Amino acid sequence: MTLECVVSEDDGIVAIHGLYQGQTETWTDPETRTFWLRDLLPNLLPKARIMTYGYKADALYSAGEGSSDRILPHALTLIADLYADRLAASAVERPIIFICHGLGGILVKRALVSSNTSKSKQVEHRRSIFTSTYAILFLSTPHHGLSPETIQDPTSPKPSQLLASLAKGSEVLRDIDDQFAPLTKRFSIYCFWEQLESNFGKAKRYIVDEGSAAPAWDNFERSGIFADHSGMCKFSNTRDAGFKVIFAALKRYTQDAPKVVRRRWLEDRALLAEERGVEARELLRHDSDLSNSDSPIAKANKYFTVPRSASSMFTGRSDIARALRQKIISTRVQDGHHQHKIFVLYGLGGSGKTQFCLKFVEDNRESFWGIFWIDASNDQNAEAGFAYLGSLAKKDTTFEAGKHWLSNCSKSWLLVIDNADDPEMDVSRYFPSGGRGHILITTRNPNNVVHSTIGDVNFRGMEQEDAITLLLKAANRPECMDLGQREIARPIVTTLGHLALALTHAGAAIRRNIYTLEGYLPEYCEHRREMMRQDNLRSADSYKLNIITTWELPYEQIKQRGTTSAKDAIEILHIFAFLHFEQIPVVMFQKAWNNMRDSSASASPSMPRFLRGLWPAIPGAKKYPLPAILSQVGPIWDWPRFNRAIGQLSDYSLIDRDDKNGLCSMHPVVHAWARDRLQPEEQRHLLGVAATVLANSITSELESSGRNYRRALIPHIDSCLQGKNAELLGYDKDSFHASNAIKFASVYAEAGRWIIARGIQRKVVNFRKKTLGSGHPETLKAMIYLGRTCWNLFSMKETLEVQLSVHSTMEKTLGKTNPETLKAMDDLVQTYWLVGNRKKSQELALKAVHGLKETLGHVDPATLTAMHNLGRSYLHLAQPEKAQELLSQVLESRQRLFGIKHPDTQMTMTDLAMSYLALKRLPEAEKLTSDTLRARKHIHGEEHAYTLWSVNDLSKIYCAQGRTDEAIKSLEGILPTVLRTLGNTHIGVSMTKFNLSRAYIGQERWKDAERVLKEQQENLNPNHPDFIHSVAELGKVLKEQGDLAEAERCFLDATEAIIKTQAIGLDHPVTRNIVRQLTEIYKEQGRLEEIRELEVKMALGVG
User: Fold this and answer.
1) Strands 188-194 and 198-200, bridge-based pairing
2) Who contacts 949 (Cβ-Cβ below 8 Å, separation ≥6)?
3) pLDDT at 279 over 70
């Protein structure tokens, strides 16, 4: 990284180059050698301090997990270098104007995002770059990515990882855009695009097209420059048209910047002063807590996982809040108290139970170390809520991990179990064990009162005066205490049964001037009478009619408008009705639109462009007309149009908006109304539309940068696939929805919900076999996914059946040397390795590696996977030299392509470390394993299977180093977790017990080793190599204790297994050790003839 000052005066202009040319070459005319930033601009802007910033583009070009993690370090370095230069010049508050070419613009956007978030005292100096930035000139920056043709390097069969991450629709670019978008209003931004095509191999094309370089964003300036991508930032004289337009912009910006930036610095100082004040108060509170450590309630809140804020219109219930505070907070926990404090709030939907809890936790946040919110509308969502707590605690993203964390937490926590309405649900399943917790339950099911330990309350209608106040607040009547207004409101609240939700919606209708306060009740009553004439509502009770009528009034008003926004609003509401009612990410619509648009190029040309990517070419696929907002054409997603639509829904209180986090929610009762008001055929159709939008917001590649987004979709996928909806959707009967379901299954699998994923994949596979045939590409793709899921569930019989079928079919239809056939063969390599057939694994691995190298090249990800699997086979066949050589090659390539944090890279590090261990290169083995363990803890959590695997590997190294105390401590520490999270029959349990026995042996704790080995063998397959290893170790332990007869039996069982299964070779170190141990026993007992028989037997390899 270099920062070079071209001319130094006052205002700061910083020029940042792109990917293909350097710090000076980018801005220099090749014929005249005019470096315009130095030779032309200073004469016209004499007070400007002009600098160029350089970075090693090749470092970006060659490595990085999706390259997102490679852009960030460069962005942070840019901030650090720029701040250091400005500090040295005593010019920290000088305005900044960035000029960026190509990738340099992405770097600046990422830097400004990071600078904006630097508010803590330790890093607040970095925020100065954000505060001082006034303007940005983007010269062909690929905001929306590069075309597939552009990212393909003519010299390579595959694009670099960085270029792939810059493709149109890339999650990396979208993530950066999403973070940068809220900041754009602070800057003056000018986007330029190239108007001439560049030479690209034998063809000509635009490197960055206009739509990507100069999106039609609001309040942005746009202009073309008559030059190609490289030439648009090179000028030989001031008469050049491109120079003129850039200079004109710079002149305006340098004139306007000082005043604006000075004001921003004043505002920012006030903001940071407030931040320091908050930190000081936190510190004082922490000190106070330390000095009152005997208090049963922690006074410093660390965790607050609450889905949204309480409504600003919340009114009343203060008597219940006071009583609850007294019961749940003020009462001291007695020593020996072993019962959670559980309080149940039950009553009608819409009576305000959830809003009460939201307000209560906000008001009492500092009384608890942690406040956690669980959506218990169904078991899947409740389990997902605890899984999130597990990841929050850096344990594992599973239901058991989250629940176990709270069960063993000694600090004071409050758990809200919300919407536990299903009478079939066992709510007590979601109570952590122990007795120091505090739990609030909201439910419509009065039977849940049995779980209360400190009381309950029946939420009916509000007190009348509180209800009147709420209605007038919702109607935006500031004179809510005016007696005349209250008297007009009184009959309305009486008619609506004093229900909080109905009152809020009535108030919204009045606030929006649909009706006056005086005119609302007559209109309401008339509409209610009309609804009672409907067949499906004639028998409805007063509560249901009150609720439905308050929503039907604004719904009909929106519908009758007939405007584009109104039509969009109704269609979006219908989609929301089939998703989960909480935390609906609005970016889902943008992602779906982008992915459909980007995939349309390969679809049928006869279909409208924006729909081509939706319809797989499968016989019988149904066409579901999409919402009009998703049928829009244009270079970018129309956020203003979308916001106008959801704004109408929000204004009428049909949805809640959380603009800060980009989420929408619906009250469960409103959500049910929006769905139940539809006829069965309408429900079937709109469920299909919702599932289609949801599925198309997920990219097929499942990029790592989108992992958090996909995890957030799981409740919405659950909503589409569970219960009645699964039957309506019919993904196992409809080709189109089968394609969506396969995507949903991939998201479940990524989140570790393997059993659910397998269930979906099995149904889709069976359906596709019936309708398309076993050899159809879509059937084979579904089978490949199913095989991998079964592999992760250690269902080896089904895995082999599926993978053998896929490989056999592909050999027949595609040929033996087709890359897809070879990839299917490599899937079998992993499976044979896991079931212990190491020779078969090695045999297939050699073929897969050779074939994939020939067809895809040495550094294709599929080739690297095959090489890794071959290296692992070498390792387990006692060929560590070959393993180490091959795995080192794979690691180097994977680090360069994916970065060190990628799961595939970490797996290679794991196996390479074990090859170092086998070669007695212990320092290298320890470093590699420690690095992997540290990374896995950070990424997956302490209790994830991969993290526990690394603990096992490190214990082996400790034993080899004679550090058996450390090995035993770590393995005994994780064994309860392994048993709890993986189950007693899981291979991870067997591995942990075997390694623990080896550590005990190292300390000559023979009885402990014998006990653990016998436990391990109870769940081992006698034909698996692990069984042979375990029996051999047990024989050694028994021999050391003098039990030669039992030791001999173990060694003979092991030799029989070796000869019978050939799971390990006769020349394997374990085999040789078994023979040596038996020989010693025979010699000690004078059984020389049996020694000769043993030698013959092992030489011939016969039992």
Assistant:
1) unpaired
2) 910, 988, 991
3) no
Question: Which letter, b or e, does each residue of 447-459 get, where b requires 16 or more Cβ atoms within 10 Å of its Cβ?
Answer: ebbebbebbbbeb
- Of 832 and 983, more confident: 832
**What integer pLDDT is reported at residue 394 of this predicted model?**
83
Distance CA 785, CA 778 (A): 11
Return the bridge partners of 374, or none: 417
Query: CA 695, CA 305: separation in Å to the nearest integer?
Result: 27
CB-CB contact of 880 with 890 (8 Å) = no
Taking the C-alpha atoms of residue 657 and residue 654, their distance in angstroms, rounded to an integer, is 10
Give the closest residue to 43 by CA, choosing from 234, 247, 235. 247
The CA distances from residue 834 to 166, 800, 801, 1071, in Å, are 37, 11, 15, 20
**Sheet hosting strand 584-585, strand order edge to edge:** 584-585, 663-665, 656-658
Q: Angle formed by the axes of helices 1025-1040 and 987-1002, to 10°? A: 30
- Give the tokens for residue 837: 């057939």
For 613-635, give one letter per residue: b (16+ CB within 10 A) or e: bbbeebeebeebebbebbebeee
For residue 183 the two structure tokens come to 């900041």
Q: CB–CB of 53/81 below 8 Å?
A: yes
The residues that bridge with 133 in the sheet, in sequence order, are: 96
Of the candidates 1028, 1022, 955, the one whose C-alpha atom is nearest the C-alpha of residue 993 is: 955
Residue 1052 tokens, joined = 């003979």
What distance lies between CA 128 and its chain's CA centroid? 31
Q: According to the 3-state scheme, what is the secondary structure of 570-586? A: HHHHHHHCCCCCCCEEC
Quote the CA–CA distance of 1021 and 201 in Å, as a whole number: 58
Is the model's pLDDT at 922 over the cut of 60? Answer: yes
* pLDDT for residue 613 is more than 70: no
Among 81, 97, 104, 79, smallest CA distance to 21 is for 104
Would you say residue 438 has pLDDT above 80? yes
Contact 997, 1009 (CB under 8 A): yes
Beta pairing, strands 438-443 & 413-418: parallel
Instruction: In whole angstroms, give the CA distance from residue 746 to residue 616.
Output: 18
Band the pLDDT of 158: cuts 50, 70, 90.
Answer: very low
Torsion of CA 540, 543, 546, 547, to 10 degrees: -100
pLDDT band at 286 (very low <50, low <70, confident <90, very high): very low
* E strand residue ranges, 625-778: 656-658, 663-665
Residues in the chain: 1103
Name the residue among 792, 779, 855, 869 with its Cα closest to residue 822. 855
3-state helix, strand, coil in the chain (%, to 5): 60, 10, 30
Instruction: Find all residues with CB under 8 Å of 431, minimum gap 6, and list them.
Output: 340, 342, 437, 439, 451
pLDDT higher than 80, residue 958: yes
311 contacts: CB under 8 Å, gap ≥ 6: 355, 358, 504, 656
For tokens 């209360």, name the residue: 452
Burial of 201 (0-12, 13-18, 19+ CB in 10 A): exposed
**Diameter of the chain by CA atoms?**
114
pLDDT score, position 440 = 94
- The Cα–Cα gap between 463 and 477 comes to 19
Residues paired with residue 948 on neighbouring β-strands, in sequence order: none
Strands 198-200 and 203-205, bridge-based pairing? antiparallel
| pLDDT score for 310 | 80
Q: Are strands 133-139 and 188-194 parallel, antiparallel or unpaired?
A: parallel
Dihedral of the CA atoms 758, 759, 760, 765 (nearest 10)? 80
**Ramachandran angles phi, psi of 342, nearest 5°:** -115, 125
Question: CA 877, CA 890: separation in Å to the nearest integer?
Answer: 19
Q: Which tokens hold the place of 743?
A: 């995507």
Note whether 945 and 982 are within 8 A (CB): yes
